Amino acid sequence: MARCRVAILISGRGSNMVSLIEAARAPDFPAEIALVLSNRPDAAGLERAKAAGIATCVIDHKAHSTREDFEQAMDAALAEHAIAFICLAGFMRVLTDGFVERWAGRMVNVHPSLLPLFRGTQTHRRALEEGVLVHGCTVHFVVPELDAGPIIAQAAVPVVPGDTEERLAARVIVQEHKLYPQALRMICDGTARLENGRVAFSRGWDASGALRSPG
After folding, report:
1. CA–CA distances in Å: residue 169 to residues 13, 15, 29, 127, 157
2. Which residues form the active site (predicted)?
3. Which of 11, 127, 161, 183 has an alpha carbon within 20 to 30 A of 50's alpha carbon?
């Protein structure tokens, strides 16, 4: 089985990156993490990737006068490493419509909310302010509109009385680390695929389970 060559784009410590790298060590995993690319030379995730034996690359956005020049440099690095698919993992740069469209259907992101709720930033604070009792994370295809792409997978956690942003975020990120590799596997083995702007699945799943809060 030919494995899909994946690049992970990061800006910081890369905790979701590590979960993807670990999952890809399995012999039957349909993706190979071939490159970790960061826009920040001091991103802690770069050293973690090097320690795992993954090729790394820095394209410093501050060294480029425009976003288009920055993205052209990224495209060149991705082409050099024969990358077929991109996973965004804490990549803190807004991508242009042109870059997103070039990678349409080949770029995914993990977002810390149950989209379409709480697009953008400060998702845990906003969830607490709105008083929701269930929160979570979403893996989705990237489209030009922020956090609006077709949903591939979601995981939910309860919101409990007295929660702080930090405690809620800690529960959510545990699920991110499980969900992102699962979603990447489904995409690369053909279980999940884009059809007419939505994600279609080639198999069903058990629909009897539910998270209730209060539980």
Report:
1. 16, 13, 28, 11, 10
2. 111
3. 183
Low-confidence ranges of the chain (pLDDT < 50): none
Over the chain, what is the mean pLDDT? 95
Report yes or no: 115 and 134 within 8 Å, Cβ to Cβ.
Answer: no
Q: Would you name the residues annotated as active-site residues?
A: 111
- The answer to whether the annotation marks 16 as part of a ligand binding site is yes
Cα angle for residues 107, 15, 194 (degrees, 5° grid): 20
Task: Give yes or no: residues 27 and 120 share one domain.
Answer: no
**pTM for this predicted structure:** 0.94
Give the pLDDT confidence score for residue 33 in this predicted structure. Answer: 98
CATH number at residue 122: 3.40.50.170
**Residue 29: half-sphere exposure toward Cβ, Cα within 13 Å:** 18
Residue 63 gets which letter from DSSP? G
Domain span including residue 10: 1-103
How far, CA to CA in Å, does 93 sit from each of 5, 66, 165, 197?
A: 22, 12, 23, 24
Other beta carbons within 10 Å of 83: 21
Consult the annotation and say whether 15 binds a ligand.
Answer: yes
Residue 14 annotated as part of some ligand binding site: yes
Number of domains in the chain: 2
